[in-house]
Amino acid sequence: MTPRRRRLARLVGALAAGAVALVVAANAVVLTLGGRGVYERGEPVPARPVAIVLGARVWRDGTPSDVLEDRLAVALDLYRAGRVRRILVTGDNGSNRYDEVTVMQRWLLARGVDPKHVVRDHAGFRTLDSMERAVRVFQVRHAVVCTQRFHMARSLFLARHAGLDAVGAVADRRRYRGRARFAVREVGARAMAVVDAWVLRRGPRFLGPPIPIEP
């Protein structure tokens, strides 16, 4: 190997090591700051006015995926127990043919939730969008976030960065297909959350007039 190629190889190696170190550090930050205030199934969740249900895949037949159904089930349990009074369903409605939030709303209404107590956020394209819009559009200040364990730390990190007094209710109620893929993807997503929040200071893709929903 020529001296020039050795220098290039060392530079590439140093850049790769630096990138790995940054990803590791960002994950540590998110897991630390977003890892508190998390309640497993069976633990009493502190009362909050609003439950935030984060979107996930829905099927063509209009039913939620297992991941999404379990998030909805947690919010439903909290609602029936009087721990929350409103449910904000937030997800991707990027086209007329794909609408997570209407599927979520229908699931809750079919199980007896008062229609006045379910609010749809059609522009929750990312977790960051959902949390920022919860505060800036829907004027939520205190909430329970309903999602799976693998997604919880990032969700609470972004919720608190947006200004929410948030706790998390873990929605793991079964073994999910693709859970290893979720875990791997989350490593990069946590790093990107830190970049978005602290470096780029990104806001949601869409805002809008205030729609206060917190009772």
User: What Rg, in angstroms, do the CA atoms define?
Assistant: 19 Å
Strand order of the largest sheet: 1-6-5-2-3-4
CATH superfamily: HUPs
Beta-strand share of residues: 5-15%
Name the average pLDDT. Answer: 94
Global structural class: alpha/beta
- Helix segment tally: 6
For the record, what CATH class applies? Alpha Beta
Main pleated-sheet profile: 6 strands, parallel
Regions with pLDDT < 50 over 5+ consecutive residues?
Answer: none
Oligomer state of the chains in this structure: single chain
Count of strand segments: 6
- CATH topology tier name: Rossmann fold
Overview of this protein structure:
The longest helix is centred in the first third of the chain and has 31 residues, at 3-33. By secondary structure, the chain is α/β, with parallel strands linked by helices. The relative contact order is 0.18. The protein has helices at 3-33, 66-80, 100-109, 127-136, 149-162, 179-200, and strands at 38-39, 50-54, 86-90, 118-121, 142-147, 165-170. The N and C termini lie far apart (69 Å). The chain has a 6-stranded parallel beta sheet, with helices on both faces. The protein contains 6 helices and 6 strands. The protein has one domain (3-200): HUPs (Rossmann fold, 3-Layer(aba) Sandwich). Strand 5, helix 5 and strand 6 form a beta-alpha-beta unit.
Entry summary:
By secondary structure, the chain is of the alpha/beta class. It has one domain (3-200): Rossmann fold (3-Layer(aba) Sandwich), CATH 3.40.50. 47% of the residues lie in helices and 13% in strands.
